[in-house]
Amino acid sequence: MIRAVLFSVCLIAAAANSTFAQAPPAAAPAEAPAPREWQSLSPEQHHLLHSYQDKWNGLPPERQQSLANGSQRWLSMTPEQRSSAQQRFSQWRSMPPEQRQELRHRWQQFKSLPPEQQQHVRQSFQRFRQMPPEKRSELRKQWRQMSPEQRRSVMRSAPPPRSR
Length: 164
Hints:
This protein has 164 residues and is mostly helical. The protein contains eight helices and no strands.
């Protein structure tokens, strides 16, 4: 069980800490989005994106769509969710570029897993988060004390996801 949790924590910690930095899901490979008019945004989106107003028409349509979608997600969040997102974003910005790149790489690894394995990792991470802080701290300490080879061994020996 500890091996499965440690493996899951490694994968999902990177994913959970970088979800705020991920790009929005790619659209179907049909066609590129059309340019978005500034006027098509809501007044609340105008307020959030005011720093882009002067350069909006010069942005690629994909970036316009990404900003519009992100602002809409922000507006749909509760105050607690916004606070949490701001905290994660601050944490992200304070990371060295190498650490950000490593997290992006881990996120891509996670996203390349089959959906059932992604779900298993998410479930394991939820179990980890529900553990008492002392137990989580102990697992993190054990992980940090392992050699790279021991970590690889733990990850290789993690049990496969349980089928439902």
